Amino acid sequence: MTLMEPGVCRVDVVRGQLVGATSHYVKTLADLEGLYEDAVAFDALKGAMSDEVVYEVTDYKPSANPGDMIMGVTRVRPGKVGREYFLTRGHIHANANRPEMYYGESGCGLMLLESPEGEIRAVEIGPRTLCYVPPYWIHRSVNTGSAQLVMTFAYPADAGQDYAIIEEAGGMKSRVVDDGKGGWMLVDNAGYRGRSARRVERVYASAL
Predict the structure, then answer these.
(1) Virtual CA dihedral for 125, 167, 207, 3, nearest 10 degrees?
(2) How far apart are CA 107 and CA 19, in angstroms?
(3) Considering the entire predicted model, what is its pTM?
(4) Multiple choice CATH, 10-204, 2.30.30.50, 2.60.120.10, 3.90.1570.10, 3.40.50.1820
(5) Chain centre to alpha carbon of residue 192
(6) d(CA 2, CA 127)
(7) I need a labelling partner for 115 at 20 to 30 A (CA). Which of 5, 39, 132, 136 fits?
(8) What are the two backbone dihedrals, phi and then psi, of residue 38, each rounded to the nearest 5 degrees?
(9) What are the distances in angstroms from CA 151 to CA 41, 57, 115?
């Protein structure tokens, strides 16, 4: 049997990147149109920073084989659209019974989670905080601080991502906004439509 060779990467906390990554992608503000509640504020901000990166992901993917794993770094810049904090698109795993781990390297923010049925959880993440995202939970990262949020992550290599589950429901059930007191709070997403029983069943049936 031929074994795979060990791999090593380094977390550059200042740049918010994984040195030695095998893939890298960025999302600009223009890429995130439709995610925020305040369309007027979004359009105004897009005019000023349309091509600027809101978040980026660098990761190391040895293979897509079951039993293997992917590790990487997510960086989310600080900022708001209206009262709503900068966030990532979010996803559920295509093989939804796969978990994920996030470790806070710098900055502060939270992991916003939603069950297929619409239950919400919000887990604060700061330096040296380890967040476990269980199987079957939709999740997205939100930067609630004044500095960039940098997190290391790891998940099974065959997990995959399903981004459409959020868009189909009109977003996630809750939004993370400035509470006016230097912190954050959850508010209802007025455009949230939820998911049909059939869609929920498809999530639970998606596990390989």
Answers:
(1) -60
(2) 19
(3) 0.95
(4) 2.60.120.10
(5) 18
(6) 38
(7) 39
(8) -100, 95
(9) 27, 10, 22
